[in-house]
Amino acid sequence: MLTAQCPQCQTRFKVSDAQLDAADGFVRCGRCAHVFNAREVLEPLPVPAQAARPAAPADRGEIEDFELELPDFEAPAPQPPVAPLAVPEPAAASAPEPVSEIAPEAPAVPDPELAAFQQALSDALRAPRPAARPIEPLESAPEPAALIGDPFGGSAASAEEEALPDVLRSQRGRDTPPETPAPEAQVAQEPEAGPAAPEDHAPARPSSLPAVLFALGGMLGLFVLAGQLVYLNRTRIAAEVPELRPTLEAACQSLGCTVPLAGDRALLRTEWSELARVPDHPGLVQFTAILKNHARYMQAWPSMELTLTDSDDRVLVRKVFPPKDWLPVAERAQRGIGAGAQVRSQLQLDTAALGPKQSSIGYSVNWLYP
């Protein structure tokens, strides 16, 4: 007697030569229904130390529920008698125990129901599977409950169930416990669209008014600062850029101010000067000087400071003459001295009050803007 071990569930069974020859060595495991070639895993049955007692013949229910089935047959020949199997022993990590031997097979009377079951099983295995139905396009979205399929492949199982004959279907009905209907999937109901929530509950957007006011205030401050700079430097701006003088004068007229001419005494030079006595007029002297403007722009008429000294360079008298006192009559109509222009000044002074010191008089002249 030989034994074969299922490579799927590691269950060991006794097999006979008749079972091996019936399907060219292919058998089906009675536990997990796995089909495998038993000749590749054949092992001799170990001889027990003591003679095994004849085992009681298994009842018909065990033969039907737990057996080595033949997956396929070359011809619908009468099935050989099925040998009763011993209770399968699981593969253990420890030393394998000897497989108990059953009593020699006795010629059993063929059971009509069992023969019909074996014949139906053979026909079912030979029958081709039904062709898969073409998938029809969905015209509309399926209901949510229809999206949840059977996790155990109910459609495929029903197709196989229809292909099996009545005898095999009745046998499977006895072996398979009744399935509990799966609870229907609860479809989450979406809330219906109601009236829009009032704007009070919406998150308030940050107002842009403060930013606008801040920008306007900044621009206004810049304009005021620029106006102050122009007002304080209006004389220099008008001198450096004469084209802007009319604009500045018009702006000052509305503000009640004026745009005076520039006055930089460092750019005024005395080109020539002289102090001489007037003939036939004792105590009367005449002062003459030529003033030149070295600036690139027109300057206002300066005041003249004249200082008289004695022989020891001590100051005898000092006096400041405004432009109307030292300017020639022809030049008084001008607003100022032009860029690079020259003007001649002439004054007569009475020095009789100085007494004897008038005989030796020195002088110095300065131009200034009081």
> What class, by secondary structure content?
alpha+beta
Average per-residue pLDDT, rounded, comes to: 72
H-E order? EEHEEEHHHHHHHHEEEEEHEEE
Compute the number of helices: 10
Beta-strand percent range: 15-25%
Strand order of the largest sheet: 2-1-5
Label the overall shape: rod-shaped
Keywords: Membrane, Transmembrane, Transmembrane helix
Biased composition (Low complexity): 84-105, 182-197
Organism: Crenobacter caeni
Transmembrane segments: 211-232
What structural keywords apply?
three-stranded antiparallel beta sheet; transmembrane helix; DUF3426; DUF3426 domain-containing protein; 10 helices; alpha+beta; transmembrane; rod-shaped; single chain; Znf/thioredoxin_put; 370 residues; 13 strands; Immunoglobulin-like
Protein architecture, described:
- By secondary structure, this protein is an alpha+beta fold.
- It has helices at 17-22, 60-65, 112-126, 144-147, 154-163, 166-175, 209-232, 234-240, 245-255, 323-326; strands at 2-5, 12-15, 26-28, 35-37, 42-44, 268-277, 284-293, 299-300, 303-309, 315-321, 336-337, 342-350, 362-368.
- Among the domains are: 2-92 and 112-126, no CATH class; 223-260, no CATH class; 265-368, Immunoglobulins (Immunoglobulin-like), CATH 2.60.40.10.
- The strands form five sheets. It has a three-stranded antiparallel beta sheet with strand order 2-1-5. It has a three-stranded antiparallel beta sheet with strand order 6-7-12, with no helix packed on it.
- A hairpin with a 5-residue loop joins strand 9 and strand 10.
- Helix 3 (112-126) crosses helix 6.
- The chain crosses the membrane at residues 211-232.
- Keywords: Membrane, Transmembrane, Transmembrane helix.
- Residues 3-38 form the Zinc finger/thioredoxin putative domain.
- Residues 76-105, 135-205 are annotated as: Disordered.
